[in-house]
Design goal:
Length: 209
């Protein structure tokens, strides 16, 4: 079943979602909700969907990055984004830790800036800086503990979806001068390097490290 995707402006997208108990995760209601979220994400299509996006203020996320979604990108663009196939999986009550680099610096300092969009803010995209590497501790759909180590695009998806559980949208983190319609992103900026996009649109991050 396809669920309605909640759009920006609805309060549920700005609330902190509550954790699920192990019994709740295994309940028919949540098991069914996970199936419906999977169908809704595939139908959209999207690479991730968080429960607040279908109006449920719960710490529940589904993710799947299929090869067919990556067809618009060249091999070089996929490599630059470190974007690979991610099979369907479920995260419950995720705790995200940003990996630190060898010199102790937060890896957020390493630029990883690309266009990002959201099914709850349709029609637009903007450059968003995201950490390159992270770890997530969570439960899966069988209420089993999992630890995920992710990098590149998968790390970006995780940050975007876990932000949803904390009432944060990508527009809170975007370089606002790079806000672009999806149509213009494809027409004008598809093959332009990030630094040039920032420079031409006058994004201040173009001059910061
Ligand atoms: Zn989103």
């Amino acid at each position: 079943m396809r669920l309605k995707i909640v759009q920006a402006g609805e309060e549920v997208l700005r609330q902190r979602a509550r954790a699920l108990t192990r019994d709740e995760i295994l309940s028919p209601r949540i098991q069914e909700l996970i199936e419906h979220m999977r169908d809704t994400m595939r139908d959209a299509p999207g690479v991730g969907l968080a429960a607040p996006q279908i109006g449920e203020s719960l710490q529940l996320v589904v993710i799947e990055d299929r090869a067919e979604y990556q067809r618009e990108l060249t091999a070089a663009q996929l490599a630059e984004r470190d974007r690979k196939y991610v099979p369907f999986h479920v995260l419950v009550n995720p705790k995200l830790t940003i990996a630190t680099s060898k010199d102790g610096q937060n890896s957020r300092n390493t630029p990883n800036i690309f266009f990002e969009g959201c099914l709850s803010v349709p029609g637009y995209t903007a450059l968003v800086s995201r950490a390159n590497a992270l770890t997530v501790e969570c439960l899966n759909e069988r209420a089993e503990s999992m630890t995920i180590s992710a990098s590149g695009w998968y790390a970006r998806i995780l940050q975007h979806e876990i932000d949803h559980l904390n009432g944060i949208l990508y527009v809170d983190r975007m370089e606002s001068r790079t806000l672009t319609t999806l149509e213009n992103a494809r027409r004008i900026w598809k093959d332009t390097p990030t630094a040039e996009i920032q420079s031409r649109l006058g994004s201040k991050s173009a001059t910061t490290s």
